[in-house]
Amino acid sequence: MSGNTFGTLYCVTSFGESHGPAYGGVVDGCPPGLALCAADLQRELDRRKPGSSRHVTQRRESDAVEILSGVYEGKTTGTAIGFLIRNEDARAKDYAAIAAKFRPGHADYTYWQKYGVRDARGGGRASARETVVRVAAGAIAKKWLAARYGVSVQGYLAQLGPRRIEFRSWQDVAGNAFFAPDAAVVPALEKFMHELRASGDSCGARVNVVAQKVPVGWGEPVYGRLDADIAGAMMSINAVKGVEIGAGFAAIEQKGSEHGDEMTPQGFLSNHNGGVLGGISTGQDITVSLALKPTSSIRLPRRTIDTRGAATTIETGGRHDPCVGIRATPIAEAMLACVLMDHALRHRAQCGDVTPPTRIG
Amino acid sequence: MSGNTFGTLYCVTSFGESHGPAYGGVVDGCPPGLALCAADLQRELDRRKPGSSRHVTQRRESDAVEILSGVYEGKTTGTAIGFLIRNEDARAKDYAAIAAKFRPGHADYTYWQKYGVRDARGGGRASARETVVRVAAGAIAKKWLAARYGVSVQGYLAQLGPRRIEFRSWQDVAGNAFFAPDAAVVPALEKFMHELRASGDSCGARVNVVAQKVPVGWGEPVYGRLDADIAGAMMSINAVKGVEIGAGFAAIEQKGSEHGDEMTPQGFLSNHNGGVLGGISTGQDITVSLALKPTSSIRLPRRTIDTRGAATTIETGGRHDPCVGIRATPIAEAMLACVLMDHALRHRAQCGDVTPPTRIG
Amino acid sequence: MSGNTFGTLYCVTSFGESHGPAYGGVVDGCPPGLALCAADLQRELDRRKPGSSRHVTQRRESDAVEILSGVYEGKTTGTAIGFLIRNEDARAKDYAAIAAKFRPGHADYTYWQKYGVRDARGGGRASARETVVRVAAGAIAKKWLAARYGVSVQGYLAQLGPRRIEFRSWQDVAGNAFFAPDAAVVPALEKFMHELRASGDSCGARVNVVAQKVPVGWGEPVYGRLDADIAGAMMSINAVKGVEIGAGFAAIEQKGSEHGDEMTPQGFLSNHNGGVLGGISTGQDITVSLALKPTSSIRLPRRTIDTRGAATTIETGGRHDPCVGIRATPIAEAMLACVLMDHALRHRAQCGDVTPPTRIG
Amino acid sequence: MSGNTFGTLYCVTSFGESHGPAYGGVVDGCPPGLALCAADLQRELDRRKPGSSRHVTQRRESDAVEILSGVYEGKTTGTAIGFLIRNEDARAKDYAAIAAKFRPGHADYTYWQKYGVRDARGGGRASARETVVRVAAGAIAKKWLAARYGVSVQGYLAQLGPRRIEFRSWQDVAGNAFFAPDAAVVPALEKFMHELRASGDSCGARVNVVAQKVPVGWGEPVYGRLDADIAGAMMSINAVKGVEIGAGFAAIEQKGSEHGDEMTPQGFLSNHNGGVLGGISTGQDITVSLALKPTSSIRLPRRTIDTRGAATTIETGGRHDPCVGIRATPIAEAMLACVLMDHALRHRAQCGDVTPPTRIG
Question: Most buried of the four, A92, A227, B51, B184, by CB within 10 Å?
Answer without folding.
Answer: A227
